[in-house]
Amino acid sequence: MAGGRKERSGQLSSRGSRIAAAIGIGVLAGCIFAFLFPHGFVSSKPPTEILPLSKSNLEVDSSSCESTEKINILKADLVKLSDKTVELKRTVRELNEKLRLAEQGKGRAQEQIMVLGEPHKAGPFGTVKGLRTNPTVVPDENVNPRLAKILAKVAVNKELIIAIANSNVKGMLEVWFTRIKKLGIPNYLVVALDDGILEFCKSNDVPVYQRDPDEAIDSVGKTGGNHAVSGLKFRILREFLQLGYGVLLSDIDIVYLQNPFDHLYRDSDVESMSDGHNNMTAYGYNDVFDEPSMGWARYAHTMRIWVYNSGFFYIRPTVPSIELLDRIANRLARENAWDQAVFNEELFFPSHPGYIGLHAAKRTMDHYLFMNSKVLFKTVRKDVNLKKHMPVIVHVNYHPDKLQRMKAVVEFYVNGKKDALDPFPDGSE
Helix or strand or coil: residue 237? Predict the structure, then answer.
């Protein structure tokens, strides 16, 4: 027992001596390394003379190359985007044109229904009435801000009379606006096609508007005769409708005897006076065509109506109305045609193979209230009862001696001179 304890104690003493020796050697080695390498084997701080300079140069060169490359890439992208923008604009124009043409095509009827609202249920027999009045367009003052300001001052209830004139008709224009002033009609405007008419209107305190220069229109307006000037009105009228105004378009060979706005229905896109001279010709009739060679089927029934007069009509600011103006202006630009004939063809010709008709509502004015000069000189002045009737206007459209007859109309209806119309023949000499 005593021998075993001594043996175990010797072993422990020997092991402790070895551990102590190892610790001592480690401490000594640590002191030597600390003395020889005070900053350690790997320095956390690189030599300032070389490393920072080299790194700096590397960063500058890298960023410079990178920036130049990016700029070149951006420039290339801008060129591509510019080309794409031009192409997109061209595509938009083409699509807008296709859309405009499509609106005149098969989808037109459905679009009209959508505009007018939800489908309606039919009522009892004899009570059903179709929708007659198209909605007005949304006014767009950006079309012509200067004209918009003028119309805001001149128009009454978003309506006005418009006449288009050049210096060739100065005498008739004076009779025209003198009568309008006498009746106290405030909402009228002269569209001057030359400087002479502009100054003439200003000197007579007549509301006047001169359009911005447009060589294609101005050359005709300054030198053209009645028919040439008449054709311009369809292009000029478009802006008035786009601005949201109802226009009573008036030639200047017209004598005003009552305020026409008191006699309009405003239930159609176009409300026009007629060239007809009685109820049948003005409002339409069943005309039988006879062709004897057809035997049993020799008689064919036709519907007839005398044309609307394109020198006096009321037009509401609706999409069909603007489409009408566009159609007429386009045809007159391509064809050597009379504007009144084109006006009526576009209003009345129905859709048929190869042609899409205009979906516009129309109304014929009372031919005794809105009287043409054929009705006056051939019928009214010879009838005791009709002579007592006061028309709203008299349009001297059937006769070339316009100014003389206009003055005679004023004498007869305004000044009470009963024989003022007598010297004139029914027609022209």
Answer: helix
Instruction: Return phi, psi of residue 310, to 5°.
Output: -80, 5
Give the pairing of strands 246-250 and 308-315: antiparallel
Q: Which run of H or of E encompasses 212?
A: none
pLDDT, residue 3, reads 46
Check if the beta carbon of residue 307 is closer than 8 Å to that of residue 340. Answer: yes
Identify the pLDDT of residue 1: 47
Helix (H) or strand (E) holding 46: none
Characterise 6 by phi-psi region: left (phi > 0), alpha (psi -120 to 50), beta (else): alpha
Give CA–CA dist 99/380, Å, rounded.
50
CA distance 329 to 341: 13
CB 61 within 8 A of CB 55: no
Which residues, 6 or more positions from 227, have their beta carbon under 8 angstroms from its beta carbon?
A: 338, 339
pTM for the whole structure: 0.72
pLDDT > 90 fraction of the chain, expressed in percent and rounded = 63
pLDDT band at 2, cuts 50/70/90? very low
Token pair recorded at residue 145: 């801000």
| Mean per-residue pLDDT, 67-90 | 79
Distance CA 241, CA 246 (A): 7
- Determine the straight-line distance between the first and last CA of the chain, rounded to whole angstroms: 170
Residues 6+ apart with CB under 8 A from 312: 248, 249, 250, 251, 254, 272, 273, 370, 393, 395
Phi (first) and psi of residue 396, to 5 degrees: -85, 70
- β-partners of residue 192 are 165, 210
Cβ neighbour number for residue 215 with a 10 Å cutoff: 7
CA distance 73 to 67: 10
